[in-house]
Each structure stands twice: as C-alpha cells, then as structure tokens.
Amino acid sequence: MENHFFKNVEKKTGVNMNEILALANSLQSANFKDEKTVRSIIKRVSQIANKPVSKEMEDKMVKSIIQDGNNLDMEAISKMMNKR
Prior knowledge:
73% helix; globular
C-alpha cells in the first residue's frame, strides 16, 4: 500500500519520493541557526520542487528561519514562496 501511495504522489507532483524522504531525514539533524545550512536546504527544496527562488526571496527565507529556527513555521515559509 505504501508503494502505491508514493507512486500516486509522484504522479501528481512530479517529485521523486526518495528525494523527499532523503530531504526529510537530513532536516532532522539540521542546524537552522547556521546560514550556510539554511541556504543549502532552501536550494535543495527549490530544486526538488522545481520552483526557482530569487536571491531576494532566499535572503528573506534565511533571515526568517535563522531568527525563528526553534519555532520554524513551514506555513509562513510556504506563503513566502507562493507570493512570487
């Protein structure tokens, strides 16, 4: 059943589930107070989602994540990305 579910998600989104799972695993131990790490994660998510992020938007996201790294609000970040 899991495999069927993942295949459906891949078809609908065009995103490889192995990439998403690898990203999720890497996020568990990520230091969200480290600018280099945060920029790397933003770029990786952008590539996986096939949604380019401008330098200005990346800077805003980095600032927001670093300031609130312990209380990371993925909804707020998602809204920032969709404003483009």
